[in-house]
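dude i think i finally got it to work??
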Amino acid sequence: MVSALRRHWPEYLMEAAGLGLFMVSACVVTVLLEHPASAAHTALPDPLARRGLIGLAMGLTAIALIYSPWGQRSGAHFNPSVTLTFFRLGKVAGWDAVFYVLAQFAGGLAGIIVAAAILGARLAHPSVKYAATLPGALGAAGAFIAEFVISLGLMTMVLVVSNVAGWARFTGLGAGALVAAYIAVEAPLSGMSMDPARTLAHGAAARHAGGGGGLPAARRRVEDPLREAAPHRSGALHFPLRVQGGLRGHGQRALRRHHHRDRGRGRDAGLAPGLLGQAHPAARARRLRAARTGQLEHPRGERRGQVPDQRGVA
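look at this
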C-alpha cells in the first residue's frame, strides 16, 4: 500500500482532478441551459435540443480530459466502474485500484463543492437539481435497466476499440461521443451517470444543501428540491449496475483473448497508464529501447542495469 501510494500518488491526484473538472463543467452547463432565468434556456424551449447541447458540451469535456497530459498519464478512468473493470482484467494492481476509486469519489465531491461555491443558489433550483442523476419517467426499474445498458455499451466500446491497433488512439473520441449521445437520449430515464462517484457527489450536495462541507451558506434559504426524491437511494441503485455493466462488457470471449494475450506479453501490468488503460507512449518507447539495447532506462534518462530477459518486453 505504502509503495503504491509513494510511486503513483500523482496519478491518483490526476484522477481526482479530472473528475472534479468534469463535475464543475456539468454543473455550469446544466445551469446555463436548464435554469429558467438563463437566456439560453429561453432561446431553446425544446428539452431535447437543450439535452443535445448539454451532451455535446460534456462529450467535448470528456474528450479534452481524456487526451490531456494528465488523462494520458493516469489512464483517464474518472469512474470507479472503469477502474474495477481494468482491475478485473489484471491491468490495474489492487492498491492502485483502491486509491484510484478513493480519488475518484474525493474528486467528485470536491468538484460539486467548487461548483456550488461558484453557482450558489442557481445550482439548487428545482430545474437544475444540482445536475443530479435520478430515476426518470420509467421509475427505478427503468433506470436500473438503462444504467446497465449504457455502462455495458461504454465498456464494450472501450475494450474493443482499444485492442485494435489502428483504432486505439480513437478510444477517447468514442467515449466522448457515447457520453454526448447518452445525455441527449438516455438522460430522461436515469439521469445518465454511468459513474457512481458522480452520482454520490451530486446526491450528497442535494441532500445536504446549505449544511456544511463547504457549500455556500446562502443555499440554506433555498428549499432542497430533491429531499423527497431521496438521491442517496438513487446512488445505491445505480452503483452495482455500472460495475456489473462494465464487467459484463469485458466478459465476452473475444475480449478475454485480447487481454490474456496482452497480459502474457507483459503489457499494462500494475497501474494502467495511458489512454483509458492503454500503455503510455513514453513508457512503451522506453521498453522498446530497452529491448534493442539490453539496458533499462529510467524515465529521467539514466540507464539502470541490464534487461534480464527480453522476451515480452514490448
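The longest helix spans residues 2-34.
im so relieved honestly
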